[in-house]
């Protein structure tokens, strides 16, 4: 009897392997890992916002609307719980993406404003913050790209035969991904030119 159970267990294990169960598990875990890195990098950016706003405020208090826009966008980002459960809820994922996109836009508007303040652009603290922000945006792009690839692989697996049967049996569904809309704009790191423009030739 024990031999029969051992054989059945071996057959069940082989069946799960061939039907894509193990691949689904592996890819699902990879998505969670990549998602954690996306969230970490977005949080790093959010943590820079208060110091960046205060730095700009010191030189450009009159830019209240722009500063308030960045602060509000950052607050909205902070109100969203970016847990792994978000990955199984397209509506929640869209809300997260929209909030991050709003913060990206607000930061872009802030950087445009700073062009009007040469003293701010030459401030050491501001330069350091901008360097950190640009580095963080680059890391966000890398993390997002890894997440996008992992989700693509997973979604293909659960749609392909015979792993699609396994996915249906165990309730695995397609996961939402970052939309193509504004992807280029969102994933482009902000840049600030600290060098003054050359004077026009006479």
From TrEMBL:
Cell compartments where the protein resides: Membrane
A Pfam family hit: LemA
Keywords: Membrane, Signal, Transmembrane, Transmembrane helix
One GO cellular component term noted in the UniProt record for this chain: membrane
Membrane topology value: Single-pass membrane protein
Signal sequence bounds: 1-23
Gene3D superfamilies reported for this sequence: LemA-like domain (1.20.1440.20)
Protein's UniProt name: LemA protein
Family to which this protein belongs: Belongs to the LemA family.
């Amino acid at each position: 009897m024990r031999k029969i159970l051992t054989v059945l267990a071996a057959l069940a294990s082989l069946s799960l392997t061939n039907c894509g169960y193990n691949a689904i598990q592996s890819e699902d875990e990879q998505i969670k890992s990549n998602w954690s890195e996306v969230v970490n990098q977005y949080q790093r950016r959010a943590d820079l916002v208060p110091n960046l706003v205060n730095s700009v405020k010191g030189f450009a208090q009159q830019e209240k609307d722009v500063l308030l826009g960045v602060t509000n966008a950052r607050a909205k980002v902070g109100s969203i719980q970016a847990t792994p459960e978000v990955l199984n809820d397209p509506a929640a994922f869209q809300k997260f993406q929209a909030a991050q996109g709003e913060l990206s836009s607000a930061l872009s508007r802030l950087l445009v404003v700073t062009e009007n303040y040469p003293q701010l652009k030459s401030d050491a603290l501001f330069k350091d913050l901008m360097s950190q922000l640009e580095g963080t945006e680059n890391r966000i792009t890398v993390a997002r790209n890894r997440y996008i690839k992992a989700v693509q692989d997973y979604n293909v697996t659960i749609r392909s035969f015979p792993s699609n049967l396994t996915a249906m049996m165990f309730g695995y569904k397609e996961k939402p991904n970052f939309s193509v809309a504004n992807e280029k704009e969102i994933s482009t790191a902000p840049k600030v030119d600290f060098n003054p423009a050359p004077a026009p030739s006479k």
